Structure formats: structure tokens, C-alpha cells
Amino acid sequence: MTEAPRAAAPVDTAQLMELLSVSLGVYYGDFTVAAASENLTASQGKALTVLRRGPAAMRALAETMTCDASNMTGIIDRLEKRGLVRREADASDRRVKNVILTAEGERVTDAIRAKMRTTQEGLDGLGDEDRDSLYALLDRVFVSRPPA
């Protein structure tokens, strides 16, 4: 008599965290090389990517990127010199400076994403259903979490 195949043990949180770590390492490496091809540091590229979602106050940008406000100022200074971002005073509080991506900044951000070959090939290998599932899971885990 043949044995029925045993079901695989459920994946635990530690295994998920390890795979996520490996995945993020591949993504970050891919991103760093693509940003460098546009003569940007990874931090400068990340700032552009964050700003691609919309303008942000300097303080909020520093918090999103988990860096010191003075470091954020240096990053934005260098991006502004290249014409990739611009600063504007906030309409409701003139002390607050919002950072806005320029058209050239949008082009460079899109170029970085287009050059991320490893990431693109991995995601392109997914079927529509898997892509939808991955999107929903990542959104649920990292973006749309209900308040604790």
C-alpha cells in the first residue's frame, strides 16, 4: 500500500521574514545599480521614488526615508541642483518646505524603474492571478493595515 503524500508544514513567520529579507536584498541591489546608472546614490533614488507618489514636506520625507532631517536636506540639495526636484513653501504654513518632483525627476525615476531588470523579470514571470494576489498581500501587510 502506498502512503498518501504528507501536506507541507505551514510557513511560519520566521520563514516569511527570511524570504522577505532575501527579496528586499535583491530589490535593493537592483535599485542601487539602476540609480547609479542615472548618477544617483540609492538615497537620492529613493527620495525620487517617494516623491513620485506626490509632493512631501521635508520632515515627512525624512521620516518616510528614516533618515535625519539634516541628511535629507543634503539629499534634496543635490537633487535640486540637478533639476530633479524643487522646493516650495507650503500654502498653509510658509515655514514648511514641500519638495516636488520636476518633469525631469519623473523621467529619471521612470528610467530607474525601467532599468531594474531582475525585479522586472521576476514580476513579469507572474500570471495575472499571482500578480493580483501578491499586490493584495503586500498592500494588506505593509500599506493598508488596520490601526492597532
Morphology: elongated
Q: Average pLDDT value?
A: 92
What separation lies between the terminal Cα atoms?
51 Å
SSE string, helices as H and strands as E:
HHEHHEEHHH
How much of the polypeptide forms β-strand, as a percent range? 5-15%
Spatial arrangement of strands, main beta sheet: 1-3-2
Low-confidence stretches: none
So how many helices? 7
For the sheet with most strands, the description reads:
3 strands, antiparallel
Structural class: mainly alpha
Describe the structure.
This protein is mainly alpha-helical. 62% of the residues lie in helices and 8% in strands.
What is the fold's blueprint, element by element?
Blueprint: H1 13-37, H2 42-52, E1 56-57, H3 58-64, H4 69-81, E2 85-89, E3 97-101, H5 103-114, H6 117-124, H7 128-143
Antiparallel strand pairs: 1-3, 2-3
Helix pairs in contact: 1-5, 2-5, 3-4
